[in-house]
Design a protein that fits this description.
186 residues; alpha/beta; Rossmann fold; 7-stranded mixed sheet; 7 strands; binds S-adenosylmethionine; S-adenosyl-L-methionine; SAM-dependent_MTases_sf; Methyltransf_25
């Protein structure tokens, strides 16, 4: 992360629409999450707070799905756009779109799958918005942290634990109790 990005993050942390710090889901867990949610070319995948766009790019390259990333940080968004452009060029199809915006100013109503890697506080803020917008049958897959129990608990359909989030950590640096994916169906 550059100094400018770190400074911007500090400034944003107390904003009411802040979803959480810049961090990235390990690539192996992105691949697993897309398989876990059974993402297919019929899906439209949203990542609200997409950082470098890796989830959206993988959704297109690995699963043939259309994807949309929304990111509030201009630096992260620029990286995500570059990655999206490369993926679209490779696929010769505009499957990946990235927008620089607050997730709260963007509608996710067309999404059939939403990916979330946010702290519980971020999931609580996002969860309320998604409940208003998503169509019945839409899936929400979260990495590490759950959606709020009171409003999303009954929509939880599957939980899977993984011993490692990185191939090189197969010896066990990560805790299997913590390294989880959760699947919710609206
Ligand atoms: C933990 S990272 C998740 C990154 C990505 N989804 C992944 O799994 O690799 C959270 C991201 O949300 C972004 N963010 C925070 N508040 C936001 C908001 N209101 N709208 C859009 N993005 C936001 C941060 O800049 C950061 O890139």
């Amino acid at each position: 992360m550059t100094d400018a990005t770190t400074a911007r993050r500090r400034e944003r942390m107390d904003e009411p629409d802040d979803l959480g710090p810049i961090s990235a889901t390990p690539d192996l867990m992105v691949t697993r999450a897309l398989a876990f949610a059974d993402v297919s070319p019929d899906d439209i995948v949203y990542d609200l707070g997409c950082n470098d766009g890796r989830v959206c790019v993988a959704a297109a390259l690995e699963r043939g799905a259309r994807s949309v990333g929304i990111e509030i940080d201009p630096g992260a968004c620029a990286v995500a756009r570059e990655r999206a452009a490369r993926a679209n060029a490779l696929l010769k199809k505009d499957l990946v779109r990235v927008e620089e915006a607050s997730a709260f100013d963007a509608s996710a109503s067309e999404a059939t799958v939403v990916f979330s890697y946010l702290l519980p506080k971020g999931n609580a803020k996002l969860g309320a918005k998604l409940l208003k917008e998503l169509k019945p049958g839409s899936r929400v897959v979260t990495y590490l942290f759950k959606m709020p129990e009171e409003t999303w608990g009954e929509k939880l359909t599957r939980v899977e634990s993984f011993a490692s989030s990185r191939e090189r950590a197969a010896g066990g640096v990560d805790s299997s109790a913590f390294n989880k994916l959760y699947l919710y169906v609206v």
